[in-house]
Amino acid sequence: KFRFEGLNRESRIDRQPLISPHPLQLTPAQEAIALGHLDILRRNGFDVGVDEAQPPGRRLRLSSLPTCQGLVFSERDVHDLIHALEEAEGSSHDERSEARGVQPQDVGSLFDITGHRAAWSATAVPRP
Fold it and tell me: Where are the beta strands (DSSP E) in 24-59?
């Protein structure tokens, strides 16, 4: 908990531009979720463009990745964030989450992913 809170307090998200945009391979449903939450992706350091000439599922192009305290995030992290948004949208349709007021915007930021990585690094055994 201490590492996570410290990381949230002290971390700043920077962007690492990519030399050429990297196409994301998503399902059409995941692409629709990402398109609906481009602001959340940008707020978390992922710059995503749209290429309408491509078929569904291949329209999004990643043009920058977030960096935080020397850690560069990857395409896997954008997939994790989209999955979290998908789960938040799915849970916002049931009665229990509507009563709690859960919205897709309430999905944790990149700091949550960073926090999980920090916790993992704290417990990882160094290799000789």
Answer: 47-50
Give Cα separations from 53 to 28, 60, 61, 69, 88 (angstroms): 14, 11, 12, 36, 29
- Strands (E) across 24-107 are located at 47-50, 60-68, 71-72
Structure tokens at 115: 């926090």
| pTM: predicted TM-score of the whole model, two decimal places | 0.67
Q: Is 101 helix (H, G, I), strand (E, B) or coil?
A: coil
pLDDT digits (tens, 9 = 90+) for 85-119: 888 877 655 544 443 333 444 345 555 655 666 66
Compute the distance between CA of residue 3 and CA of residue 115 in angstroms, rounded to an integer: 7
Q: What is the DSSP letter of 13?
A: -
Task: Give me the numbers of helices (H) and strands (E) for the chain, helices first please.
Answer: 6, 4
Burial (Cβ within 10 Å: 0-12, 13-18, ≥19) of residue 112: middle
3-state secondary structure at position 37: coil
SS3 assignment, position 26: coil
Task: Determine the pLDDT at residue 100.
Answer: 37
